[in-house]
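Dear Dr. H.,

I hope your travels went smoothly. While you were away I took the liberty of generating a structure for the chain from your last submission, since the lab meeting agenda had it listed for discussion. I wanted you to have the full record in hand beforehand rather than looking at slides cold. The sequence, exactly as received, is reproduced here:
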Amino acid sequence: MNKIILVTGATSGFGQAAARKFTAAGGYDIIITGRRKERLEALKQELEAASAAAASAAAASTAAGVAGNVKGGSPTKVLPL
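The corresponding predicted structure, in token form, is as follows:
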């Protein structure tokens, strides 16, 4: 079961960096919030693409018989303020 992470202020700075780090780490369901809807939507798309790429890499590693530890495919939710 994935842990749920709520990232506030995800449209810039520390919040944006934290959302990217949690996505890269895998194993988290991430909820992002921020004031700038356009930036929030762009970040959501970026995180979903990164998560899908990580899931694809993990599947490829497993298919090749390599024990992969890459986690991905976690949903990203957007909550505009």
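Two observations you may find useful: The helical segments are 13-25, 37-63. Confidence is low (pLDDT under 50) at residues 61-73.

With kind regards,
E. W.
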